[in-house]
Amino acid sequence: MSVTAIADWTSQLRRGVLELCILQLLRREASYGYEIVTRLESLGPLAAGENTVYPLLRRLKTEGLLDTFMQESPAGPPRQYYRLTADGRRRLATLEKEWAAMVTAVERATRTGVES
Amino acid sequence: MTGENPLVERYLAKLDAGLRDLPAAERAEVVSEIRNHIAEATAAGKPIDAVLSALGPAEDLARGYAIELLLNRPAASRDTSRTRRFLALVGLVVIGSIPTLVVVTVLGGVGIAFGAAGIIVFLAGVIATFGWLPDYVTMDVAPWVAVLIGPMLAIAGGASLALLVWYVRFTARLVRRVIPKKTAGVDVRDVMA
């Protein structure tokens, strides 16, 4: 597997998981674009670029999973906060279940692969 | 703040240009969000060059939005747009069918009849000039009149056929506008892959 192929695989994997991570990040409290990006950055391999996160936030909003409100910031222009809608919470619950099933399946596959 | 930085303005202008397939309101919101991001990042002490290079080329960012928003459009809006397109097609057929019937019949009939008649009259005139046609055929019309009128009739017929061709092209263009080409969606999917 070449370096670009691995990078490609990682980015595809991340693209799918990122939606779950953003919804999880917003589970307890609303947050604004820059904060979401920097918090994802601190998550190591999940660190998706701004050019992935912002378009995804926008799509989650058009899908009705997130909605936005404006709030003054201590310095600079007002911030656009994202928060989960009821649909967003339902989606988060579904994705968490899917993710758990996926992890179990991958682990089992890896283990049997090692044993045989 | 960063509002007046020409680097930032140029970046946002490029982003805005790249988003031209999105609705104007959505475009403005996207540009304002990225503007805020740049303001937050520079306020946090990051140099402007680093902030812009982390965002990546404006064209790529715009493409990221196009992929997320145009490809993954919610099913509901895709349905309404499909319904609207179907209604537009029905409307086009209803409004267009009767005029098309009339136009095609009249222009086609006039075109063929006038064209053929023009040639026959012209030939009859030529033949009559040499006195080879009996009077009951020429009906006392002077041969030179027939020679002159023949080509005029033929020209009228040709013009009518040309109009018909133009009309067919015009309706074809209308129909094509209502029924979009399938390739548009495929292009976005190619970008995705």
Helix-strand blueprint:
The complex is a heterodimer of chains A (116) and B (193).
Chain A: H1 3-25, E1 31-32, H2 33-41, H3 50-62, E2 66-71, E3 79-84, H4 86-115
Antiparallel strand pairs in A: 1-3, 2-3
Helix pairs in contact in A: 1-3, 1-4
Chain B: H1 6-18, H2 24-43, H3 48-55, H4 58-71, H5 75-129, H6 135-138, H7 143-178, H8 183-192
Q: How would you characterize the overall build of this protein?
A:
The complex is a heterodimer of chains A (about 120) and B (about 190). By secondary structure, chain A is α+β, with helices and mostly antiparallel strands. Chain A has one domain: Arc Repressor Mutant, subunit A (Orthogonal Bundle). Chain A contains four helices and three strands; from the N terminus they run αβααββα. Chain A has helices at about 5-25, 35-40, 50-60, 85-115; strands at about 30, 65-70, 80-85. Chain A has a three-stranded antiparallel β-sheet. In chain A, helix 1 (about 5-25) packs across helix 3 (about 50-60). The model of chain A has no long low-confidence stretch (mean pLDDT about 90). Chain B has about 190 residues and is mainly alpha-helical. Chain B folds into two domains: about 5-70; about 80-180. Chain B has eight helices and no strands. The longest helix of chain B is centred in the middle third of the chain and has 55 residues, at about 75-130. The radius of gyration of chain B is 32 Å and the shape is rod-shaped. Mean pLDDT of chain B is about 80; it is low at about 185-193. The chains are: A alpha+beta (about 120), B mainly alpha (about 190).
